[in-house]
Amino acid sequence: MPRNFVQSLSRRLALFSLAALAVCSAEAQAPLATPASAAAVPQINPTVFVRLSTSEGEIRIGLDADKAPKTVANFLQYVKAGHYNGLIFHRVIENFMIQGGGFTKDLQQRPTKPPIPLESRNGLKNLRGTLAMARTSDPNSATSQFFINTVDNAFLDADNSRDGNGYAVFGQVLEGMDVVDKIRATPTTAQGPHQNLPQTPITITKALVEPKK
After folding, report:
1. Structural domain for 107, as ranges
2. Looking at the 3D structure of the chain, how many domains does it have?
3. How far apart are CA 101 and CA 86, in angstroms?
4. Domain with 128 in it: what CATH number?
5. Is the pLDDT of residue 11 over 80?
6. 190 by DSSP, 3-state: which?
């Protein structure tokens, strides 16, 4: 069986597993959504900044390379290579997260670099407004896909997760949570393996690393 097909199938199954985890944990953990207008709680020390220009507006993100050095370096490689330009947020669950970084508008998956080791035990929590890496059931499988938590998702932290690994937080939205909230409220539909696909594509038109001042 072709390696690319296996990788694609594995990632899609992981997306389903993460969705199932969210549904199951919603009853057990009952994470409470913060008000849509509330600012994210600062918890990182940003060392580099990335601006995501989307079809819904601008999102400015601070990345913590001190606490998640490998994850930040990986993300920056994709940004600088233009990987995210033209990709969509392909998975949107209003009271959970918005996910992107893997698929084009026609749901074609872009090639990725080798996966990176998990850095989930770095002290950063999956709070509202934080940026974390998506992965398969293999903890060391993250490549390009990321998600932004739209509520506090404590069950995604390593200490609280079912698999004991959790999801690695490496950044936080500093400006543009109103844009994130607009995206999370968009109507979704099911198409093939994608169960929470926005009805109207929401595109990352450009991802840029801000120059150091």
Report:
1. 3-209
2. 1
3. 9
4. 2.40.100.10
5. no
6. strand
* Residue matched to tokens 């120059």: 211
Cα–Cα distances (Å) from 158 to 11, 87, 118, 126, 131, in that order, read 20, 28, 10, 10, 15
The two tokens of residue 165 are: 């690994």
User: pTM surpassing 0.90?
Assistant: no
- Average pLDDT rounded to a whole number, residues 82-103: 98
Residue 180 in contact with residue 129, Cβ under 8 Å?
yes
At 112, the amino acid letter reads T
pLDDT of residue 115: 98
d(CA 25, CA 20): 8
Q: What is the pLDDT of residue 9?
A: 41
Summarize the confidence of residues 172-190 as an average pLDDT.
98
Q: Reduced to 3 states, what is the DSSP secondary structure of residue 61?
A: strand
The candidate with the shortest Cα–Cα distance to 150, out of 124, 168, 170, 176, is: 176
- What is the tally of helices (H) and strands (E) in the chain? 3, 10
